[in-house]
Design a protein that fits this description.
CATH class of the largest domain: Alpha Beta
Radius of gyration: 35 Å
CATH architecture of the largest domain: 2-Layer Sandwich
Shape: elongated
Strand order of the largest sheet: 5-4-3-6-2-1-7-8
Number of domains: 3
Distance between the termini: 113 Å
Structural class: alpha+beta
Largest sheet: 8 strands, mixed
Strand content: 15-25%
CATH topology of the largest domain: Heat Shock Protein 90
CATH superfamily of the largest domain: Histidine kinase-like ATPase, C-terminal domain
Helix content: 25-40%
Length: 510
């Protein structure tokens, strides 16, 4: 019998005599496990998808609850309740599908691919239950459970069933068996959600939507510091916004990309403690916020061309706004938390953004130079100099003849400057002072126990409270020295008293 194949390596193999079996495109029991690793950065990114759904449904109030067995134990469940329009049974079943959406590939809303609810929920929890009502008394319920799909082979969305309404109108999503939360501790997770949701949805919150986490309101956090907290909204917009008309892929229409820049107040915030700078997002906060339909989708060092990121770049910010019709050019992922801009888009907007970035970097450098120069004068020295004109001139000045101006005698106002200089002194005084021209020099004794135990320790601290205390201590010393200059009893008496004061303080401080 002749071989059916002439290839020596295949000779002897029998030809296929049966029809190949049909293999499903997806194995649900393994797919559901794999989809849990869909690439969300963390809990806040996953929950942001559920907030998106609520906003799209017209919700004005979105409530997030972190559930624990005991106070501050690891979070085991999360509830998200909104007062949106709710869903019909058919829409609820579609919403729980992977890829199911009533607005698939829509360019008119926050969502697009219909992956948000199932992907985001199961990325942090192994079960999600959804209750929804379009009107009072007409609630529907359905769910997804990883264990049922993986172990029992379920491959269909459970048919929605009637349920007691959990809200008069709207939707509640309940995530249980939260086995992939990081961080899981309630206090830390709450703090993280307040910060990140406040940044992601800052424009939507400013537009009137209220979001709470365990009843704490999510405040808008603007990386440009142009709105939000009145105390910290001190960023100044730099120039008019850049506007780029961009051709929409596969269309003759165009859509506009708008770019904003802001400068942070270097002079006012230079002396903030490093910890506070990190908490506020000033330190290590350089970058570009990419906003799609009023919702931030990414933050990073984008469109900067050849400019490298530097520490000075923490003190200016950039924000780019675009509409969903340009998603392909921005390379938005289906999780709405990362962009991969195309070369075509980069070539259009990068040159101007890089140019302004370099200009702002130079302006920040100049501001730092000015602050460091002015920083040689302490707040106490500056305050004393500003108010010295209100004090009687020193005795030395009073003995000098008054100057004449236009034939009349003019009163001499001292207007003294002040200078504190730490210096080792041979005697036991806390400090010594002298009048050098128009400047009161105060030599602070670095060998005195007051300097070692009090002054130097407070000066090393960078908190606002310690800086206030340092200013008060320095003003007390300057006031003492200034008062000596008004005495008519002579400098020897003042020096003796100052020396005795320093000896007594040494005894007290040990």
């Amino acid at each position: 019998m002749r071989s059916w194949c002439k290839c020596p390596r295949l000779r002897g193999l029998k030809p296929m005599t049966t029809e190949p079996k049909i293999t499903p495109l997806v194995r649900f029991e393994t797919f559901i496990q794999a989809i849990r690793d869909s690439g969300y950065k963390g809990a806040s990114s996953a929950l942001a998808e559920l907030v998106d759904n609520a906003v799209e449904a017209g919700a004005k109030n979105i409530k997030i609850e972190l559930l624990t067995a005991e106070k501050d134990e690891p979070v085991t469940g999360i509830r998200i309740t909104d007062d949106g329009t709710g869903m019909s049974p058919d829409v609820l079943q579609t919403a729980l599908q992977f890829g199911g959406s009533s607005r698939f590939n829509s360019r008119q809303s926050l969502g697009r691919y219909g992956m948000g609810l199932p992907c985001s929920s199961l990325s942090i929890a192994s079960r999600v239950d959804v209750w929804t009502a379009k009107s009072r008394g007409a609630a529907w319920w359905s769910y997804l459970d990883v264990e049922e799909i993986a172990e029992k082979g379920k491959s269909a969305i459970p048919v929605p069933q009637r349920s007691n309404p959990v809200t008069s109108r709207g939707t509640r999503v309940h995530l249980s068996k939260c086995d992939r939360l990081d961080p899981a501790k309630k206090t830390i997770l709450k703090k993280l959600l307040l910060a990140e949701l406040g940044r992601i949805f800052r424009h939507i919150i400013e537009g009137g939507v209220t979001i709470t986490v365990d009843e704490a309101p999510v405040a808008p956090i603007d990386p440009l510091f142009s709105f939000g907290s009145a105390k910290w909204s001190k960023g100044m917009l730099f120039g008019p916004p850049l506007k780029f008309p961009i051709r929409i892929p596969e269309s003759r229409s165009t859509s506009e990309v708008v770019v904003f820049f802001s400068e942070l107040p270097v002079k006012q915030w230079f002396d903030l403690p490093n910890k506070m700078k990190r908490q506020l997002g000033i330190a290590n906060g350089a970058g570009v916020s990419v906003v799609r339909s009023a919702r931030e989708v990414d933050y990073g060092w984008f469109f900067m061309g050849g400019k490298r990121r530097e520490n000075y770049d923490d003190w200016w910010r950039c924000e780019i706004h675009y509409e969903p019709s340009l998603d392909e050019l921005f390379g938005l992922t289906h999780t709405k938390q990362r962009i991969r801009p195309t070369n075509a888009l980069t070539q259009i907007i990068s040159p101007e953004i890089e140019s302004i970035a370099r200009t702002l970097n130079a302006r920040v450098r100049n501001s730092f130079t000015q602050v460091k120069t002015a920083d040689r004068i302490s707040p106490a020295e500056r305050r004393a100099a500003q108010t010295d004109v209100l004090i009687d001139p020193p005795v030395l000045f009073q003995k000098q003849p008054a100057k004449r101006r236009n034939g009349h005698q003019a009163k001499v106002l001292a207007g003294l400057e002040y200078n504190i200089m730490p210096k080792p002194l041979k005697n036991g005084a806390i400090f010594e002072s002298s009048l050098r021209g128009n400047t009161v020099d105060v030599q602070l004794n670095t060998r005195h126990v007051f300097y070692e135990q009090v002054y130097s320790r407070i000066k090393k601290e960078k908190s606002l409270r310690s800086q206030d205390a340092l200013k008060l201590i320095e003003l007390m010393m300057l006031a003492y020295c200034r008062a000596e200059l008004t005495l008519k009893t002579g400098s020897r008496h003042a020096a003796n008293l100052r020396g005795a004061w320093g000896d007594v303080l040494t005894s007290f401080l040990g």
